[in-house]
């Protein structure tokens, strides 16, 4: 059985990211949050666009103000948004406001607090250094410079950069489409009355939300009964309609665990059937050709916690690579001090869910109350981290460090 790291590497190798030549769309900047840039964005402008003042004060010629106090004649007032009208001559100053364009002839700004005004004259009280408070044209970046590389996720500061660079639209990767199905005769929708032996299909809803959160487009295909023909046609439809497919349930060794067999019948190559982790040991990863690309199928275990942990650990990073992101596919890991003892069986790498908090003394991990059964979905809702005990380790004492996967 592969370790989690081996499985992660194998899965990454199977992923061909969306292509900038064919998998893109143009979206308005207002709809670009969270999308992945498909082509680099470069600037058509210098930034700042022209020399401008960083302060409210007076634009002067540095050579005029080396000996202070000295009094200059004010020849113009330049508010932001207005082009200066005159070239500054010897002995002259221009009243200038923050962000306003420097007049020709001026090279230095003296802030208002270091001057004294009398009518149309200003006395400079303190000698400034050359270019004082002047933001030089092109000093932040120059026309032609790359502002944002391809593969970057567009966060709010990037939106500001794109707006400033006059990009009202951007070319981004399309959202990958991920079909989701739940297998099991025992499953019912949340609004249905429960008969003895039935449970609600929570995985469909959890996985749909997770896929949407990852920036992909979820396609919820509902519950499929444990009948091979029904499952085969549902999986075939899902493969047809989506880039990738995620199912939950039916991947163990039970009498109704048909997923792997059906994938083989559909011509898929099975790469993985189990990983040495707890929860989430059964995990089917298969690939199929579709046109000139490869589709992936993830068969997650049915237990609700196992399904989510498997998704976080193996599917989400792969989806991140598929989406065109250039880096940062996997989750972030931190070292945290556990506030309570942690226990594991030791046979498989074990993931214990709980709350990860950041204090001034560093990260703290508190395991969920009520135990770590892979069927106990309830205490997963407040989880923000998964503490990882390596294979062979059976406990961590309170106050000791532990590796935690952030969620
Ligand atoms: N003999 C063995 N039995 C099991 C093994 C094993 O190695 N040998 N592995 C166990 C482990 S670990 C897990 S995890 C489960 C995974 O089994 P399946 O993926 O085949 O899942 P099911 O049997 O269909 O369901 C397991 C469990 O989860 C509930 N479930 C299923 N789907 C959903 C859903 N959509 N929403 C909420 N809950 C769901 C289901 O009712 C079962 O209780 O196998 C062990 N068995
Ligand atoms: O791996 Mo199963 O996921 O332990 O419950």
Features of the shown structure:
single chain; 407 residues; alpha/beta; Molybdenum Cofactor Biosythetic Enzyme, Chain A; Molybdopterin biosynthesis moea protein, domain 2; Molybdopterin biosynthesis moeA protein, domain 3; 6-stranded mixed beta sheet; 6 helices; 33% strand; elongated; binds ligand LQZAQKY5; binds molybdate ion
What is this structure, in a nutshell?
Belongs to the MoeA family. The protein is an alpha/beta fold and 407 residues long. 18% of the residues lie in helices and 33% in strands.
What layout of secondary structure does this protein have?
Blueprint: H1 4-14, E1 24-28, E2 41-42, E3 52-53, E4 57-60, E5 70-78, E6 92-96, E7 108-111, E8 115-118, E9 121-124, E10 134-135, E11 146-148, H2 156-164, E12 169-173, E13 177-183, E14 187-188, E15 199-200, H3 202-213, E16 217-224, H4 228-241, E17 244-248, H5 259-265, E18 269-274, E19 277-278, E20 282-290, E21 293-300, H6 304-322, E22 333-338, E23 342-343, E24 349-359, E25 362-367, E26 385-389, E27 395-396, E28 401-406
Helix pairs in contact: 1-6, 3-6
This protein binds ligand LQZAQKY5 and molybdate ion.
Catalytic activity: adenylyl-molybdopterin + molybdate = Mo-molybdopterin + AMP + H(+)
Function: Catalyzes the insertion of molybdate into adenylated molybdopterin with the concomitant release of AMP.
Protein name: Molybdopterin molybdenumtransferase
